[in-house]
Amino acid sequence: MAGASARWLVLLLVAVSVALAAASGKRERWRSGAVGGQVVEKERRRVVADAEAGTVTAVDVADAEGTAYRLHFISMDTGALFLPVQLHADMVFYVHSGRGKVTYIEEESGEQSSLEVERGDVYNLEQGSILYIQSYPNATRQRLRIYAIFTSEGINADDPWKPKVEAYSRVSNLLKGFETEVLRLGFGVQREVAEAIKSAKTPPSIIPYNPQEKGDDEKPNWTEDIVDALLGVRDPEEFLNKKKKDKHKHKEKGKKSKSKAFNFYSGKPDVHNCYGWSKTMTNKDLDALHGSNIGMFIVNLTTGSMMGPHWNPKATEIAIVTEGSGIVQTVCSSSNSSDKSRRGRHHGDERRGPGGRGDEGDKGGGGGGGSDARRCRNSVFRVKEGDVFVVPRFHPMAQMSFNNGSFVFVGFSTHMGQNRPQFLAGKGSVLQVIGKEVLSLSLGQKNSSAVEKLLSAQRDSTILSCISCAEELEENAAEERRRQEEEERKEKEERERKEREEEERRKEEERERKEREEEERRKEEERERKEREEERRKEQEERERKEREEERRKEQEERERKEREEEERRREQEEREREQEEERQRRKEEERARREEEEREREEEERRREEEEGGGGRGDEPEREEQEEDGDEPPYRLSKKLKKRYRVRSG
Ligand SMILES: *[C@@H]1O[C@H](CO)[C@@H](O)[C@H](O)[C@H]1NC(C)=O
Ligand SMILES: *[C@@H]1O[C@H](CO)[C@@H](O)[C@H](O)[C@H]1NC(C)=O
Ligand SMILES: *[C@@H]1O[C@H](CO)[C@@H](O)[C@H](O)[C@H]1NC(C)=O
Ligand SMILES: *[C@@H]1O[C@H](CO)[C@@H](O)[C@H](O)[C@H]1NC(C)=O
Ligand SMILES: *[C@@H]1O[C@H](CO)[C@@H](O)[C@H](O)[C@H]1NC(C)=O
Ligand SMILES: *[C@@H]1O[C@H](CO)[C@@H](O)[C@H](O)[C@H]1NC(C)=O
């Protein structure tokens, strides 16, 4: 039953982590291209958990290859419990102080193991493991402080300045994400158990915990146990142990050999003299780091001492200052003269990223940036307790303590293989191997006497006396910084001035441009207006012309019409006159005819009378004829002729 449940739990967790990994895998691998040293101050750590019984803070760093690492600083009060988490990344931890017990269940074996840990202990856990930590309840002891470094593809895929993937997730959160029914069936427990799990308020990740206070007489209650264990109300170990009581006996032997942490203070240091001591260990040296490519070192410099100039051919050093303060100098292996490289960075702020302070040429925050902007520069850092400093491989460095106190730092080194720090000083120095002739040439010396002195003056140890070195370097660095700040201030002013000028110039240009445009627009409008007017004028003219033509045409027509009418009238008049004339003529004719008729009739009458009277009576007739001759001659003549004719005829 218990075994099945545990496996179920593991399956759930694996499923979740696979999903998380898939989600993060899509992101582009972060590449810093960062060179040079880097410092993240204690104040700039990210707070991951903040509970009464303890805190967890985090710092993300990256090496020169762009591989990201996450550091967690777990600090627990005495008598506290760091509730179970599942690791999403490989973890190497170092116990800085206090005593406690680290319990873990490795994914592969599904077995629970636990480690008694104390100051100096180092251990490695693989991702997928479930882990919880108990600090022993003893008020006189120090807090349990653990420094852990996490490495994984998930963390690495992230931009270390903006972490999204967590190094681990809380088991309670993973479980509570499921529906009650799923929990009930999945674990084969009663509904109320599942409901209790779902409904309980999630406690802080570190809670006060003192198993001694509880009576051991309580009867085992499976229902309570699962709730308590998962939510951290009771000792999870107790619960898990109970379920494995039978197995435990068999596994005891095999477990012991593995569950032993390495302690830095147990053996002899690599180097030890009156200026300090140092000790290094790699995964080759120790079972505790087996399967990890993280190595560790610890250096204690007494007052006025120096860890001689050296560099790591294969490892990046990520160190945490655990005591005092000191100076770290890094040299850019590939930089031009310091003057030139210094000029290469004008981005001012030495503190970069989420608190990084370093000598690469650009602010880390962007993560991108051209390679030019990230020029390495030699640098001197002052670091204090709690600060993290990173020195990439190939970067020669030296660490120095002040005259008034010791300087202790613990570090993780990322091994790309077998790393052997290369010291410039000392008998084993590479400089010795190169030889004074070649070295003289490479240092631009005319003859080898200076180099000879340099080489022969070298001391045996890598840890050396260096009275007031740190102070002087700091002084110089401060001076340098002041100078630089001054320079930068000036440059900034200059830049701002130029920008202002540029701005003004641009504005001026803009104004001119606008004016020009305005002018052109106006001209254009004017032109258009004129064109329109011209057009209108032409149209008008055309219209007028047409009107005039029309008028003329009409006039013409009118005139013609009138002429025609006049003609008509004249013709009519003529006609009328002719007709009148004819009428008159006709009437005259008729008159004459009538008169002739009358004449004839008279003549007839007269003749008859004459005939009757016998030819008298004719004397007065010519007189009448003569009277008539005056007034109307032609008809008279005509009548005369007619008279004659009539006479002729009648005669
Ligand atoms: C607490 O520490 C003191 C002093 O180191 C020691 O004498 C005592 O036994 C410790 N108590 C427990 C419960 O570990
Ligand atoms: C176990 O705990 C649950 C919940 O507190 C309770 O209901 C149950 O009676 C307990 N069982 C025993 C055997 O004590
Ligand atoms: C470092 O050395 C100083 C002086 O020898 C000593 O007082 C101090 O306890 C040492 N620190 C560690 C962590 O070993
Ligand atoms: C070194 O300086 C020279 C001249 O200023 C320049 O051409 C060269 O790119 C620089 N090299 C590096 C690595 O900065
Ligand atoms: C030690 O000396 C340095 C440099 O002179 C100074 O900054 C620092 O405050 C001193 N530390 C202590 C503990 O006096
Ligand atoms: C080497 O050069 C230094 C000055 O650069 C000079 O003082 C010294 O005499 C020279 N030694 C030899 C052996 O030429």
From TrEMBL:
Transmembrane segments: none annotated. Residues 241-261, 331-376, 475-651 are annotated as: Disordered. InterPro entries: Cupin_1, RmlC-like_jellyroll, RmlC_Cupin_sf, Seed_Storage-Functional. Coiled coil: none annotated. Residues 347-363, 478-597 have a biased composition (Basic and acidic residues). SUPFAM superfamilies: RmlC-like cupins. Pfam families: Cupin_1. The keyword Hydrolase does not apply. Residues 242-259, 638-651 have a biased composition (Basic residues). Residues 1-21 form the signal peptide. Residues 38-195, 262-451 form the Cupin type-1 domain. Residues 622-633 have a biased composition (Acidic residues). Keywords: Signal. This is Cupin type-1 domain-containing protein. It comes from Urochloa decumbens.
